[in-house]
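user:
I keep going back and forth on a fold encoding question. Separate attempts, laid side by side, tell us more than any discussion would. Would you put together a sequence-and-structure record for a protein of your own picking? Write it directly below this note and I will take it from there.

assistant:
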Amino acid sequence: METSTISAGRTVAAAVGTILVTGCGTDAGLSAPATASALASPSAAVPFGQEDVLKDLRAAVTAAGSAGSKVETGFGVSRERLVRAATEKQRKVAALAARLAPCVVVWASTGNRYSSPDAVDPAGTRRQLDAALSGLAARGWKEAAPPKEAPVENIGSYFMASYKKEGWFIDARHVEASALDQVTVMATKEACFDRLTNEERALIEK
């Protein structure tokens, strides 16, 4: 899957997550979920929502042998990190992330992981990801585009895969380079991010 095939909405979601993980936020952002309904557009007529995505991903991750992993709604960022005030931009990003929380599910154990060169199973993380993706396919998730794998400066590899189901998309990535073994999995409801204003998009893209 070429990067250009990833929608603007999912790119924005990934950008929000990246900014939050690096540390940002304000108490104002934590009060925003009450207004999230306007973005998430909850409706009794919508049969597939965040809780359904959560169940699918949790089941797939557990079946893949990662029962101890956290799959949760929102961007997987702790309250302590969100309440740390920083720049004005970071406060706005935190508020936006809180508002978008009903539109996101993450495999929260997917932060940086470092594997020893002497590890018994250095490819275990990738196998678990592949198994989780197979589990999602068994639950009706379809490939949004062909997966892509490429070398990383002769020291590792970079893998991307994208799946879709009823207006939701899952982007999964695995980077293995030297001792770094990093997996990121994020599900987003496309409609929520498509309705962002130009100002909100500029906030993330700058």
The beta strands are 71-73, 104-107, 142-151, 156-165, 168-177, 180-189.
